[in-house]
Structures are given as C-alpha cells and as structure tokens.
Amino acid sequence: MPILMIAPSVVLIAIFVYGFIGRTAYTSLTAWRGVVPDYTFVGLRNYERLFQTEKFQADIVNTIHFTVFFLAGCLVLGLGAAVLLDQKLRGSIIFQNIFMFPLAISFIVTGTVWRWIFNPNYGLNVLFHNLHLDFLQSGWLTSPGSALNSLTIAAVWQMSGFCMAMFLAGLRGIPEELREAARVDGASESQAFRYVVFPLLRPITLSAVIILGHISLKIFDLVFVMTFGGPGYATDMPGLNMFITTFRQDLFARGAAIATVLLLMVALLIVPYLIWNLRGETER
C-alpha cells in the first residue's frame, strides 16, 4: 500500500523532472537551430561555442559577483535584524512585519519598484539633490559600473527578511541556560554570542546559503524587469541569456546548453549539502 500511494508521484517526477532534464541535456548535444527540430548529434560543439562567446563569459562573471554580494548582504542584514529582534525591544513586532513584507511580493514587483527608485530623473538622485547630497548621485541602472550593484541591492532588500526569519527562529530555539553558563564563566555578551550562540547557528547559516545561492544562480525575473541585461552585458545573467537564445533567436540547442550549465552550477552548490546532510542523519 505505501508503494502504491507514492507511485504516482514517483512516476510524474521521473517523467516531468528527470525526463525533461535528460531531454534538455540531449538537445544541447544536437544541431537544433530554428523552429523545426534537428537532432543531428554534434557532441560538445554547442558548449565550445558558448564558452567562447563574450556574452556568456560576462554572464559567469556577473553571476559570481552577484552571488557573493547577494549572499553577504542577506546574511549580514538578516543576522543583524534577528539579533535586534531577539532583544524583544518595544516595537520589535512592527519592525519584524515590515522586514518580512518584501517576501510577500515577487521579484517582478520588486524589480519594477526599484527600477523607479533608481531612475535618474525622478528617483534617488532627485532625493539626494534635494538633501544637498549630490555626491551620492549615481547613474544606477544606466551606468555599467553601478548597474549590477543596484540589482544586488534590490535582491538583498527582497530576501534579507528570509534570513532574518531563519536566524530569529534559531536564536529563539537556543536555551537561555547556555548563555547564562557562558556569562557565569566570565564571557562577555559578544564572546557568548561568538563562541556559544553563533556556532549553534551554523546549520541555519548553511541552509540559508544553499537556498539563496540557488536563487542567485538562476536569477531571471529581477534582471528581466530591471535591466534586461544592460547596459551592454553589465547585468546579463545565464537565465536571461538562455531565454533570449532559445525563445528570441530560436537557437534551441545552444539554449539547452546554457540550461545544462545552469543545472550543473546549482548542483555544485546543492549536492555537497545533500551529501553532508545525509551523512549527518546516518551518524545519528
């Protein structure tokens, strides 16, 4: 009976997840160009041409830059907000709800709002000018030097509340007796947090890195709305490149190659975590 209960899900996942992954990987090894399918086997030719293109090389660099600063911003802001909320100060519930609000909206809405904010004609630049802070003005999304950082700011605003919620749950789950024992042994508050509390938050930190990392690696909708990869290749990402290559240029084999590279990038992040988690459960 248990096997019969889970059999439909197993079959559907095998077909619509792993079956389509295999189909995409095979398509990336063919010569399919245009609307009419062409399954002539060409081996790794699409991958060779892909990594030789300047656009895809820029995509990889942009993805690494975006991922590093996105993870750092979310983790630092999320942990800081969680520590403050854990103090149970007056008004903390209101602040917690405000900090969690961005999670209720999609990246499409976030991108639209921040595109307005970063508009040089009526966004932050106008505010800085009215406050006589002209030195803070920037080209934001219109400047190749600041466009990717502006994109990162919008993404951090969206997802830092997620980290805050995870860290706050972890802090609330740590027994107060452990902190009291550290204080009795002469540890200061900062030392108690560094040597007692923070090590206990490592599993939560790792989980946050895995979840946010795979979001950043396959980011598409935020880039599509805010910059569409511009100016030039300054904010182009593999997900957007795959969309344009496949559905705008009809280069289906090359688009499948980009999708396969994206899958491998995500797998490099998630598979070690799954192995570590499996080993931990086995040891228990």
> Helix-strand pattern, N to C?
HHHHHHHHHHHHH
Q: What is the count of β-strands?
A: 0
Mean pLDDT comes to 90
Distinct helical segment count: 13
Please give a quick description of this structure.
This protein is mostly helical and 284 residues long. It is 72% helix and 0% strand.
Give your account of this protein's structure.
Helices cover 72% and strands 0% of the residues. The protein has one domain (2-283): MetI-like fold (Orthogonal Bundle), CATH 1.10.3720.10. The chain contains 13 helices and no strands. It has helices at residues 2-27, 45-52, 54-86, 92-100, 107-117, 124-130, 147-172, 176-184, 189-200, 202-217, 221-226, 238-247, 252-283. The longest helix has 33 residues, at 54-86. With 284 residues, the protein is mainly α.
Quick tags:
mainly alpha; 72% helix; 0% strand; 284 residues; MetI-like fold
Write the layout of secondary structure elements.
Elements: H1 2-27, H2 45-52, H3 54-86, H4 92-100, H5 107-117, H6 124-130, H7 147-172, H8 176-184, H9 189-200, H10 202-217, H11 221-226, H12 238-247, H13 252-283
Helix pairs in contact: 1-13, 3-7, 3-10, 5-7, 7-10, 8-9, 10-13, 12-13
